[in-house]
Amino acid sequence: MSTVALVSCSDYSIQQVDNAVMRVLSLLGGADVYAAAGERILLKPNMLAGDPPEKAVTTHPSLMRAVALALKPAGASLFYGDSPIYGSTAKTAQTCGLAAAAAETGIELLDFSDSETTSYDEGTQNRVFELARAVKSCDRIISLSKLKTHGLTGMTGAVKNQFGCISGMNKGKFHVKLPEVERFSTMLVDLNICLKPSLYIMDAVICMEGNGPRGGKPRFMGCILGSTDPVALDSVAACLIGFRPEEIPTCRAGNKAGLGNCDMKQIEIVGDDWQAFVINDFARSQKFMSDIHIGRGRLRNALIAKPVIDEQLCTSCGICVLACPANPKALSRERECRPAYDYDRCIRCYCCQESCPEGAISLITPTLGRFFNRITS
């Protein structure tokens, strides 16, 4: 059995979040289980991009603050960091409010720009990663994820949060190397096995629905979750937003690899009544079919969801072009014109949609693809 703690948290006020975090930690054995004197501990928030906290793109600063204050009495040295999709980590931390929370609690930002090759034997598919050197300098990782929809993996939560431990453009290489969602999800599972975070805490006070993980809409749920099993945590979160755990490829891959449980019969939920937090009409992001490999070309274009730019929202900033990992790029832009797609080059990683600061890129499934989804579901 895996244990997932779920605790009500009605807003991001200091008292509410502090109490909720302390209760989550208490249900999971107490704060002293996850920190010890002399340890270097990395708090790993979701710091996807430099958006303010109210947009629900990143882990809320009040959650990181509460976790830091809960762990400090143990005498450990606390740090935080992530590798955002573009721009500097320091500037991103300032914009999303995490820098202020860190200054208040006395924790230091680590530089994730330098990487180091890490090999390990336990991976099922990937046994080598280019990890941020700063991650390797820490004795323990505590993952602080944000519950959001995601175009590629359906949702992003505990398992996917560690992708930010891979520095800079090295993340894009995995999208090119592993364009199929099942193999990409297995890579994320292997990454968690490699890093071995001690604890996973999820910000689900205000989540993101629809065109996530950046262009969607904030949606109130009102809880904070925690577990030492990231697959079980994501499985419970999936149920809260209307998925079955087996629909989430990272849950399937994590269960298969032994990272954790996605069978709800093998998960004990402690704390508050989880069914009171279920949102049945939580808007999903359209995504391509994850159970089959279609390859490239016309059939792929006819079946799989493709990113489409809303000309009314697009500001021609060009960030989507920079984010595209394909070589040659599937997006191009001349002068100040809006970016244009070459869908035959598009690997359907949706990095463009994920990076767009205006939410101008959405995923559209072709009619034939929607029909195929219905008859195979």
Order of helices and strands: EHEHEHHEEEHEEHHEEHHEHEHEEHEH
Main sheet: strands, sense, barrel = 9 strands, mixed
SSE-based structural type: alpha/beta
Q: What proportion of the residues form beta strands (DSSP E)?
A: 15-25%
How far is the N terminus from the C terminus? Answer: 29 Å
Shape: globular
The low-confidence runs, each spanning 5 or more residues with pLDDT under 50, are 288-293
What is the number of helices?
A: 13
Number of strands: 15
Short description:
The protein is α/β, with parallel strands linked by helices and 377 residues long.
Describe the protein in words:
The protein has 377 residues and is of the alpha/beta class. 30% of the residues lie in helices and 22% in strands. Strands 1, 2, 3, 4, 7, 8, 9, 10 and 11 form a nine-stranded mixed beta sheet that branches. A hairpin with a 3-residue loop joins strand 7 and strand 8. The longest helix has 15 residues. The relative contact order is 0.14.
Helix/strand layout:
Elements: E1 2-8, H1 14-27, E2 40-45, H2 61-71, E3 77-80, H3 89-95, H4 98-105, E4 108-109, E5 115-119, E6 128-132, H5 133-136, E7 140-150, E8 154-156, H6 170-177, H7 181-195, E9 199-209, E10 217-227, H8 230-240, H9 249-257, E11 267-271, H10 298-303, E12 306-309, H11 319-323, E13 331-332, E14 340-341, H12 351-355, E15 361-364, H13 367-376
Keyphrases for this structure?
377 residues, alpha/beta, nine-stranded mixed sheet, two-stranded antiparallel ribbon, 30% helix, globular
